[in-house]
Amino acid sequence: MVMDTIGVGLISVGWMGRLHSRAYRALPDHFPELGVQPRLVVAADPVPEAREQATERLGYERAVADWHEVLADPEVDVVSICSPNFLHREMAIAAAQAGKPFWIEKPMGRYASDSRDIHDAVQQAGVITSVGFNYRHAPAVERARDLIRSGRLGRITNVRGSLLADYSSDPAAPLTWRFERERAGSGVLGDLLSHGLDLAQYLVGRIASVTALAQTVITERPLPGAGIVDRSAAATGDTKPVENEDYAALLFRFDDGAVGTMDSSRVVHGPHAEYTIEVYGTAGSIRWDFQRMNELQVCLDGQEAAGYTTVYVAPGDGEFARFQPGAGTAMGYDDLKTIEAAQFLASVRSGRQLAPSVADGLAAASIVEAAEASLADGAWHEVARVDGPLTFDAPTPVI
């Protein structure tokens, strides 16, 4: 098969930038009929060690310090934006204006206003986009969506979700940009709950209104020392207040009358990445936990045994067959990003928005915006409607 070459540019060579790069490289193996051979052209990062890693480990032909050079390069056909939240707005708008389709991580902006500006720039430019809602692509989630959307669970009555992580549970861990309002925006609302809210909409439908509560559990953290500032950076003895929430809980209503609850923490002790979604209907229910990504708990009226049956995903569920030959052999997190890369490049090649779009990113940000309004006054708030190619309510994409 003759492969079309697509030139890739990367902005920010952190953990997620490395993951995007591996996903592009894996495409010809897992999605050969896509007919695409990604060419890793150029990566941008202000840190010299990161630029060295881009060329020597990841396979980019060259690396630069200034991200503007990535967008200006005529050999770059698509761009991955993997920088911290506070840089997303400027980079994404510039990519849209340069006519470059882009794959951006979530939250798409620090605030809904950032996300709205990105969405508007994309609408005006007409470029294809992708937002990193990777949990959609788990084959168990795709199977759950088929059950729900086909009516097997009956009328959906309620949804329960929880996104519990311990990555910030150590109070001695340094205060990185994630804890600063100006650079991160919200805390777990944008960082974790945006994933859960997108999952809820992908499975059930649009969330229409919300009320919320939140708290900051660890109110101060030590300032980071010299060097690259990440979760493992050394800390000084000086401290600074944490400016956003460590925990948040939401009540919400869907357009169709179903209701839901969802909470999230980044400071719990016990769960590492316990991201769960449960959907209940008048004829059954499903439960899924990311930490057991390849299993789905299913209860349906009329099944032989009462209660839940554990279903192990297998060929025929989502894109599972591209990665493993049979049930019981597990897919991993990186595989979800490979599916995401495939949906992005399939969207670019076809001109149809198959991947989660910036409209989906704005939809999640709009729920967070309504939740933050609720935090201020304790009331229920309507979620702003979003125009544009929303994919959470579209048919399951076929690559």
Automatic annotation (TrEMBL):
Keywords: NAD, Oxidoreductase. The keyword Oxidoreductase applies. This is Gfo/Idh/MocA family oxidoreductase. Residues 142-287 form the GFO/IDH/MocA-like oxidoreductase domain. Residues 7-133 form the Gfo/Idh/MocA-like oxidoreductase N-terminal domain. Pfam families: GFO_IDH_MocA (PF01408), GFO_IDH_MocA_C3 (PF22725).
